[in-house]
Amino acid sequence: MMRILILGIDGYLGWPLALRLAKRGHEVIGIDNLSTRRFSEEVGSDSAFPLPKPEDRVREAKRHLDVDITFYKGDVTDYNFLTEIMKKHKPDAIVHFAEQRSAPYSMKDRDHAVYTVVNNEVSTLNVIYAVKQIDPTIHILKMGTMGEYGTPNFDIPESIYVEAIVNGKKDKIIVPRKAGSVYHWTKVHDTDFLLYFHEIWGLTVTDIMQGPVYGTRTEEIVDESLRTRFDFDETWGTVVNRFCVQAILGIPLTVYGKGGQTRGFISLEDSMEALTLLLEHPPNHGEYRVANQFAEIYSVRKIAEMVKNAGEELGLKVEIGPLPNPRVEAEEHYYNPERKVLPSLGFYPKKNLKDELKNMIKDLLPYRERLERYKDAILPKTKWRM
Ligand code: USQ
Q1: What is the ipTM of this complex?
Q2: Boundaries of each NAD-dependent epimerase/dehydratase domain copy (predicted)?
Q3: Which mutation among 105, 239, 339 tests ligand 1's pocket best, with the greatest number of atoms within 8 A of CB?
Q4: Average pLDDT, the chain
Q5: Residue 250: its pLDDT value, please?
Q6: What are phi and psi of 69, to 5 degrees?
Q7: CA-to-CA distance for 112 and 93, rounded, in angstroms?
Q8: What is the mean predicted confidence (pLDDT) over 292-310?
Q9: What does the pLDDT look like over 98-147, one tens digit per residue?
Q10: pLDDT tens-digit profile of 230-252?
């Protein structure tokens, strides 16, 4: 049994991870400033599934799963608040999800870019300094993103360093990174800070490079009251989740540009499984571990075809409606990231996109009227070139 502090416990990944870890017998403490709830409202949207208040979530978890979760409302950018909770609960591991996680939100204007940078960098620095001050042996499990690497024309290594020959001389360099939004750049900067302080203070870190997550289900979501948030608007929804809602609402699937943008996807259930494995098998003390976390590689165009097929099998009429790309990104490119850390811990994906798509559409169909209310928030308005 470990004591695990989840920063960002109210989020898409934070809540089901809390349920999973608590169910496995770990003591789970969480912090959230509820910002995603507010930001979703800011863009005229809401979670597809109605979200109970934090205190109701905790009560429902007790009722259905017989687990005790401690939930604090507060901000990780408040150093005193964070350190008080850490001193009180003495965690063995800290899961850091407490960041602004949307690329489009970070690209809206100067204010949103600055907010994203300040929130994400201050929260990461606070975690680093708090661990150093309170207990430098705490394992920091940090949510990064596959988007840190961008889409290079070489196989993406799963390590922090790579050997390179620059101007004829060989040296160890940090695996090259090229992010595609202010949000994604903050994750690069997080990696830079974590690596730097790991090197000078010997911190123990797992830096997870995760691809886009999709899905509505995990083993612990056994009742509607335990559902995690599910975003589908242009700002907070990720591509697979968005396409499922578009299929239900009869909106042609919004493939941006040529649709050859290729990413490593993972289901919510498999993401929980991978995160649990990484927590229960921490790196050695003072080690910096990078884990590329994805299950299947697809292009956006291929995903649209798969959602169309899944929707049509369930009786929906689904069209694919390519749109000019609001983002600046490669629309056809090479993509071959390495993945060996999770398999070495025994991870194998249990879900696949094809089957999960049907489950997602089935889970969302009863909420069609609710989804209709937020229809205006679906088409892309945020443009990278402004
Ligand atoms: N896309 C479309 N149509 C849409 C939405 C997205 O074609 O309606 C395309 C985007 O242009 C992009 C790809 O789908 O090429 C993925 O976009 P996304 O919105 O699903 O994901 P992204 O903005 O990259 O960010 C999401 C999460 C972020 C996480 C990241 C992992 O919001 O927190 O870090 O996925 S990764 O993509 O590997 O960087």
Answers
A1: 0.99
A2: 4-289
A3: 239
A4: 98
A5: 98
A6: -120, 135
A7: 30
A8: 98
A9: 999 999 999 999 999 999 999 999 999 999 999 999 999 999 999 999 99
A10: 999 999 999 999 999 999 999 99
The rounded Cα 113 to chain-centroid distance in angstroms is: 19
> Which two tokens mark 359?
């489950």
Phi, psi at 158, each rounded to 5°: -105, 70
Nearest to 95, CA basis, from 209, 4, 25: 4
Rounded to the nearest angstrom, the distance between the alpha carbon of 323 and the centre of ligand 1 is: 15
Distance CA 325, CA 190 (A): 28
pLDDT for res 359: 98
> Within a 13 Å sphere around the CA of 103, how many CA atoms are in the beta-carbon half?
20
Residues 145, 191, 216, 382: which is the catalytic one? 145
| Domain boundaries, given as residue ranges, for the chain | 3-377
- In CATH, 3-377 is 3.30.70.270: no
Atom of ligand 1 nearest to the CA of 211: 38
The alpha carbon of 38 and the centre of ligand 1 are apart by a number of angstroms equal to 21
For residue 186 the two structure tokens come to: 């903050």
Confidence of residue 386 (pLDDT cuts 50, 70, 90): confident
Distance of CA 120 to the CA centre of its chain: 14
